[in-house]
Amino acid sequence: MILDGTLGPTSRRLYAVLLALPDDRDLRDAAAALVGVDSPDDLDPYLEELAGAGLIETGTRGRAVRQLFLDSDVRPARAAAWSLSAPLSGGAFARLEGGAMGDGERETWTTDEFGLSHAGAVGVLLADGTVPPPVYFDMSSGGGGRSVSQWNVYDGRVGQAPRAAALRAVCSCGWTGPEQRLDWEQIGDQELQDAGARAADTCMQDWDGHTAEVERSAVPLPESFTALVSQLEPQIETLAKSSPLAAVRAARCLEVIAMQTAYWPAHEARKDAHPEQAAAALGLDERAARQLLARFGRSGPYR
């Protein structure tokens, strides 16, 4: 989720801290120390600002409750969301590890078709060109915490976070976009969340271009088929307005057709195509391609 630009810097910092806190902690006590206010009561105006923006709910004891939002109006095909749970289609605050992605929890983007095979994010580079490790937030004296690699924590001010020299789009497939350099003399005392917003948006556009290229390089579909699919989607949406159950049945019919018609092609593809070839043709990584063919072929992925 993209935070409202009208929120104050302390409210935005508080929101990031609330996302990182584990569920078993008293959020007010822990957040007060991490945000830098004198007492939990001093959080009230910032909690009210976040609640007014619809980012959190407050319970009867004033404890903040995290919510998941899909910003579909801003990004219809790749709606970004914040969560500390499993990755969701459309984007999530998720943990993706290894390679250019690095480790730690951050906002990620996905497409409905390619999913986590091409999950994108804003990556960070330090002045020496290396990818920094995640910033660890220790949340309790009893142990436990969160490793966060969200780009805007690398401002050289929060905890042990180093200062980002550049941002770039990264993808779980290993692709990386061009560097977007950060001018810290110009940034000055501004919050990185604000000062780096344009560079971060450019990173998302770069990743959009990458996924478009993945789509173009996948095995082409006949125009007659894509035209038929483009007609079905609005028809089901229209049907849902008058009869939601009928729309569900229509979607179920498509699901049945998919499972029936893809059974033998899935078996033939697994027999004839090398896993790397199948993955490239489907726009997926090899593991996801194996799982897809196994699901349609109704067999195990390694059979």
Task: Please provide a written account of the structure.
- This protein has 303 residues and is α+β, with helices and mostly antiparallel strands.
- It folds into three domains: 9-66, Arc Repressor Mutant, subunit A (Orthogonal Bundle), CATH 1.10.10; 93-217, no CATH class; 223-297, no CATH class.
- It contains eleven helices and nine strands.
- It has helices at residues 9-20, 27-35, 44-52, 184-187, 192-195, 197-217, 223-242, 244-261, 263-272, 275-282, 286-297, and strands at residues 56-58, 64-66, 93-95, 105-107, 120-125, 135-138, 145-148, 166-171, 180-181.
- The chain has a three-stranded antiparallel sheet.
- It is globular, with a radius of gyration of 22 Å.
- 33% of the residues are buried.
Residues in helices, as a percent range: 40-55%
**Strand content range:** 5-15%
Shape verdict: globular
Major β-sheet, in short? 3 strands, antiparallel
Compute the gyration radius: what is it? Answer: 22 Å
Number of strands: 9
SS-based class = alpha+beta
Sheet with the most strands: spatial strand order: 5-8-9
- In the residues, how many domains can be counted? 3
Which helices and strands, and how do they pair?
Layout: H1 9-20, H2 27-35, H3 44-52, E1 56-58, E2 64-66, E3 93-95, E4 105-107, E5 120-125, E6 135-138, E7 145-148, E8 166-171, E9 180-181, H4 184-187, H5 192-195, H6 197-217, H7 223-242, H8 244-261, H9 263-272, H10 275-282, H11 286-297
Antiparallel strand pairs: 1-2, 3-4, 5-8, 6-7, 8-9
